[in-house]
Design a protein that fits this description.
- 2 copies of one chain form a homodimer.
- With about 325 residues, chain A is α/β, with parallel strands linked by helices.
- Chain A folds into 2 domains: about 220 residues, 3-Layer(aba) Sandwich (Rossmann fold); about 70 residues, Rossmann fold, CATH 3.40.50.1100.
- Helices cover about 45% and strands about 15% of the residues of chain A.
- In chain A, α5 links the parallel β3 and β4.
Chain lengths: ~325, ~325
């Protein structure tokens, strides 16, 4: 087994991303703090280029590749944020990107991926395998496969958000008791833990997951990798990975505290609060850590806590559903 | 006539606001830039504490007052953003605030103003005068009236956003051709012009207004103060001041370019784009300058332009109306 990624790897990623990714703000709200009886900070990665944190890992991966490999292009598969992040990273570095997307992916996400100059190959979710298509392209062209989370270059790229959180909290005169980040395959949560704890070793870091897709929480509790029963059925379309990654899980066991699990309704309420109090557009999967803080599953009372709102790529109808749950 | 406020006054305000107001981000979007053929930056003042830029001017005003005056409290009238900004500034400085608000103001805005510790006095829009009530309180208690825009301390406080825009553009390696800000009484637009042009003298600054409430645009064109025909009837509830201020207009004549006027539908489209591409919640009045840039009334093609999105205090129904105009 290769050694686990370290804080130094996240620092190296931060140097690669300088001037490329936005240092997204760490926001706080007096009214919310009073209601929770503590200090809650939001790391607003929905404001990141491409509308999610995914550009961090994808760009770091491409920047870490050799020139010879970059010349042969990259290939990836995703129906959402990784597609857009990878396509934009490739555009910025002048690398040819091929993205395999389901033919029923939202038209806007396909259009956005194409707008970054990527070649999009549509596949039939029922009859075809995106992995098989992606591997076929890689074998034929020599392109490098860029996985969505299960690679050291990806997770340490995402971890640069953790360095920023620790630095921004310090600048605000705060030592964070805990940080939480949304979790699908665990790239963001483990990376953020490395980044935060490298600068603030007493800060606990937790991964948030939607109910029914809490494979990491159950894996951490049991000590062995668990699978979800379902592959779909949560509003959190970005957080449906079936099981923790081979790279991310051993690291998660070392750096993460117990998992946090929230319901779809709690996620919709968190999206509404982000709209009303923080003026942020957060997608369902991006709001799970915030939902954990608002429901007390992640304790804020008497503490200082930061949550990553990891993306804002949400369609009108889903957003209206969140707004429909409370009166403003 | 007292001398016009200067860049040095905005610099003094910036020192007072340090550590109090958020340095809101200056955001850019590749897709929007490609569509417009230039570089468009958004100064996201909707992310400011209290959900709008108004805290800047209110806090600067209170910080510039004498201790003796502060001890007697402050009074203001507003149905919206100035109420919340003034109430929060007073809370932060430990000053008693009384805010006169219409009895039909949105319940949430009244609750938010009270949550900052202000005493809210409700009045009947039809039968009573808020100015009379406010002046009555000031005479009885010795409280200082804090006007919403027509005072040097207010407009130079708002102008600190202009200093930030110029500094942030410079850090991005950009010399801005133009900046635009929403305009009701002209405090934000004139202040921003002082702040921006103090650091970037070649940058033109424009005020945006809703159609039918373009008193400043017509006043600038004619050289004399013009009034709006109506007092209500635009979706931009924050931009309905009837005529330019006595302090702001002479300054506007000196520092602002021609006014920009947009329709309610153009404002709703701008709110939808801010949601979809920038992941920001912008209220109607906060989106007029963005609307001017998107419609070509403020030219972006071949240029670098920044617009202030000045607030995000919008109710669910109005936001849903904006989302209803296009498919995401």
């Amino acid at each position: 087994m290769s050694p686990l990624p370290t804080f130094a790897d996240v620092q190296a990623a931060a140097r690669r991303l300088e001037g490329v990714t936005i240092r997204t703000p760490l926001l706080e709200n007096e009214r919310v703090n009073r209601a929770l009886g503590g200090r809650l900070f939001i790391k607003a990665e929905c404001l990141q280029r491409t509308g999610s944190f995914k550009l961090r890992g994808a760009y770091n991966f491409l920047a870490a590749m050799t020139d010879a490999d970059r010349a042969k292009g990259v290939v990836g598969w995703s129906s959402g944020n990784h597609a857009q992040g990878l396509a934009e990273a490739a555009r910025l570095m002048g690398v040819k990107a091929t993205i395999v997307m389901p033919s029923d992916a939202p038209a806007l996400k396909v259009a956005n991926t194409r707008a970054s100059g990527a070649e999009v190959i549509l596949y039939d979710r029922v009859k075809e395998s995106r992995e098989a298509i992606g591997h076929g392209i890689a074998e034929k062209t020599g392109a490098t496969i860029v996985p969505p989370y299960d690679h050291p270059w990806i997770l340490t790229g995402q971890g640069t958000a953790g360095i920023e959180i620790a630095e921004q909290a310090k600048a605000a005169g705060v030592t964070l008791d805990a940080v939480a980040a949304p979790c699908s395959g665990g790239g963001l949560a483990t990376g953020v833990a490395l980044g935060v704890q490298g600068l603030s070793p007493t800060t606990a870091v937790h991964a948030g997951e939607p109910a029914g897709f809490d494979d990491l929480a159950r894996s951490l509790a049991s000590g062995t990798k668990q699978k979800n029963d379902k592959l779909s059925g949560s509003i959190c379309d970005a957080l449906l990975a079936p099981t923790p990654g081979d790279v991310t899980f051993p690291l998660a066991q070392k750096v993460l505290g117990p998992g946090l699990v929230v319901s779809d309704d709690e996620v919709l309420d968190a999206m509404e609060l982000a709209f009303r109090e923080f003026k942020l557009v957060v997608e369902p999967g991006g709001a799970v850590a915030l939902a954990a803080a608002l429901t007390g599953k992640l304790l804020v009372k008497g503490r200082a806590v930061a949550v990553v709102c990891s993306g804002g790529n949400v369609d009108h109808e889903t957003f209206k559903r969140a707004l429909g749950r409370a009166k403003a």
